[in-house]
Amino acid sequence: MTNKQFRRHRRLRSSTTMRAMVRENHIRTEDLIYPLFIMEGENIKREVPSMPGIYQLSLDLISGEIQELEKLGISSVILFGVPNEKDEVGTGAYHEEGIVQQATRKIKKEFPNLLVIADTCLCEYTSHGHCGVIKNHDVDNDESLSLLAETAVSQAKAGADIIAPSNMMDGFVTVIRKALDEAGFTHIPIMSYAVKYASAFYGPFRDAADSTPEFGDRKTYQMDPANRREAFREAASDMAEGADFLIIKPALSYLDIIREIREQHPVPIVAYNVSGEYSMVKAAALNGWIDEKALVLEKLVSMKRAGADLIITYHAKDVATWLKES
Ligand code: PBG
C-alpha cells in the first residue's frame, strides 16, 4: 500500500525523544497539593490502615514532614484536623486553639513559603460526624453557614493562605467571602469544593480523619454520582458567589465533569484524587498486580488531560520523587 491511502500516526511515536516532543500534557511538582492529617498529642505517627504510606501526625512531628516536602519541591499542603474532642456543633473547627489553627501558625512561622490550604468543614469536629449542625435529623443549611464562616476566619487569622470550604452547604462561598472581607482578609482566595459527589471513594479518608457520620449519609448535601448538569449549576453558583478556584471531587470517575467545568469557567480547576482512588492503587501494587509508578503517573496525567490545573493527591510525595529521578 502507498501512504496515500492511510495516515501514518506511528511516525510521531517512533522514539522516546519524539514522543516527549509531541507530548500534550505534563505533571509538574508545582501542580501537586499534599493532604496532611494532624492530631493533638505528641510523638504520634500512625499509619492509616486503609492508606499505606499515609500517616496521622501529631503537631510536633509536622516540621520533619514539611522539610521532606520542601526537599521534594512540593509547595502546598491541605490540612485536615483530627481533634481529641468533638461536640454537637464542631467547636474544634473554629476555636483559636483548634488543631488546624495551631498547625497553620506553626507551619507559616517555620515555612513561610509553603502554601497552606485549610479544609473548611465541620465533620472532623462534630460528635455526629456530619458536615454541619443537626436539626430535625438533617444538617441545617443556614445555621451551619455561620459556623463555617467563623471557621474560615479563624483559619485565615492563623495564617492560612487559601480557604477550601468542603461541606456543600448552599451559599458557603457567599458567607465565607463576606466574613473574610469584613475581617480584613480580602486578599485570601477561596478554593471551593464546588462539585462534590456523595462518593464511596471517600471511605478510607473517613478512617484517616475519623469523620464517618454516626447516622444516615451525606446524600442531602453531597451530589448524586448519576448527575452531570447539576455539577454545572453548582460550579456556576460558586463562581457567581466569588470562588477563585473550583474543586471537582472525586477525580478519576468524574473526568467528564472536570473537562466540562474546564470549558465553562476560566479559573484554576482542581481535581481531588481522593482516598479510595489512592487505596485501590496501593492495594493492587502491594499485591504485585500492577506497576504502581506507571499507573499513578497515567491516572494523574489523565486528570491534567481532562483539564485540571492542580491535583490534590496522596501520591504527591511519590510523584515528586519520580519526577526528580527522571
Ligand atoms: C469533608 C471531606 C471529605 C474529604 C475531604 N473533605 C470526606 C467526606 O465528605 O466524607 C474526602 C477526601 C478523600 O476521600 O480523600 N470534610
UniProtKB/TrEMBL annotation:
Chain residues that bind 5-aminolevulinate 2: 275, 314
Enzyme Commission code(s) on record: 4.2.1.24
Keyword line: Heme biosynthesis, Lyase, Magnesium, Metal-binding, Porphyrin biosynthesis, Zinc
Reported cofactor(s): Zn(2+)
Pathway(s) the chain acts in: Porphyrin-containing compound metabolism; protoporphyrin-IX biosynthesis; coproporphyrinogen-III from 5-aminolevulinate: step 1/4
Positions with a binding annotation for 5-aminolevulinate 1: 206, 218
GO term, biological process aspect, one: protoporphyrinogen IX biosynthetic process
Annotated Pfam families: ALAD (PF00490)
Binding site for Mg(2+): 234
GO MF terms held by the record: porphobilinogen synthase activity; zinc ion binding
Binding site for Zn(2+): 121, 123, 131
Active site as annotated: 196 (schiff-base intermediate with substrate), 249 (schiff-base intermediate with substrate)
Record field: catalytic activity: 2 5-aminolevulinate = porphobilinogen + 2 H2O + H(+)
GO CC aspect terms: cytosol
PROSITE patterns: D_ALA_DEHYDRATASE (PS00169)
Enzyme class: lyase
Protein's job: Catalyzes an early step in the biosynthesis of tetrapyrroles. Binds two molecules of 5-aminolevulinate per subunit, each at a distinct site, and catalyzes their condensation to form porphobilinogen.
Family: Belongs to the ALAD family.
Oligomeric form and interacting partners: Homooctamer.
Protein name, per record: Delta-aminolevulinic acid dehydratase
Organism: Cerasibacillus terrae
Gene (name only): hemB
